[in-house]
Amino acid sequence: MRTALVVFLLAATTLAQGRRPPKPEEIEAVRTIVGAEAWGELPEWRRRDIVRRYLRYVDSDERKQEAVRAAGLKDYLTAASRKRGPRLPRSLEKEIEALPASSRSIATKLAVVRVRQLRLDRNLALIARKERVAWFERLFPEPFDPRAAREAKRAFDKQVAAAVARQLRKKHPDLAEMTREQQREIVRADTVRREEKVVQRVSRELKRLRDVRPERLPPQLDLLLQRRDIYGTPRQRELIRWALRPADSPLLDFRWMGKPPAENRRARIQWERDRVTLARMELLTRAGFPEPVVLHLASAGSDQEFVRSLRGLIGRRGDPAR
């Protein structure tokens, strides 16, 4: 049952990305259409692309299916892939469509970046605290190796699925006695719930773009959208992002600081400033920046000052870690 539950959770990631998992008979139908020999010679990524096209075909209305069949179903499935960016949840796409035309391009970039970032933050937080740094470093190897990163992502997804499965077994002690369909429904509901949290947060950030001109973006959004202007490796960019918003980082553990002072407002503000400063020092040091750069950035008095200093020290001078 444990293995089956993890498999359900891995399949649920396709639902979170707006796709349903294919049925075994659908995969076999595709194999027959393409031809067993040709199918056997295709790389895995190409097979996934063809299966996704087949699912779009069978889920479309009869008129569209007739048009595809008339043009040739096999040709439709095996045509060269059209390049498109990552797919957003449909609810976010609708919100972007409702924005003024001048804001849609920026909103799309923001949504794509934030969905990926928030999923990473959420999934890292599911891993045991003592293992998170090691997984983060595997996902963003130095020097960066795309192949190693992809392999790490596949292994990481399995760890996340296993962690969620453990949570579900704890929440539903009778899960093992349930039917497979009941287990699937629980996994589906849990996936939707966790993904909805990501969508809601991105939605709130998109709403901030309604009345903001592109040149007057809040500093944290500006950094996200202009992140290519910040010289650094993929690992450094994630650490810089968390340094700007330490509360989002699953790598930090400041439980030793206890709770903020509840009665004294001034002491509470200072406590929060101290935590942000310490967090930035830890994250930027982990990014490999020299001590003077770390101290200067960590002492920034505001988000605006942090972004200005970051661009001045890193964006203009290249990667200070070199």
Description:
With 322 residues, this protein is an all-alpha fold. It is 70% helix and 0% strand. The chain contains 16 helices and no strands. It has helices at 2-16, 24-34, 36-41, 44-59, 62-71, 73-78, 90-97, 101-126, 129-139, 146-171, 180-207, 219-225, 234-244, 265-286, 291-298, 303-315. The radius of gyration is 23 Å and the shape is globular. The protein starts with a helix and ends in a 7-residue tail after the last helix.
Write the layout of secondary structure elements.
Blueprint: H1 2-16, H2 24-34, H3 36-41, H4 44-59, H5 62-71, H6 73-78, H7 90-97, H8 101-126, H9 129-139, H10 146-171, H11 180-207, H12 219-225, H13 234-244, H14 265-286, H15 291-298, H16 303-315
Helix pairs in contact: 1-10, 1-11, 7-8, 7-11, 8-11, 13-14, 14-15, 15-16
Q: Biggest sheet, open or closed, and with what strands and sense?
A: none
Order of helices and strands: HHHHHHHHHHHHHHHH
Q: Total number of β-strand segments?
A: 0
Could you say which structural class the secondary elements and strand pairing correspond to?
Answer: mainly alpha
Averaged pLDDT = 82
Which regions have little confidence, pLDDT < 50, spanning 5+ residues?
Answer: 316-322
* Share in helix: 55-70%
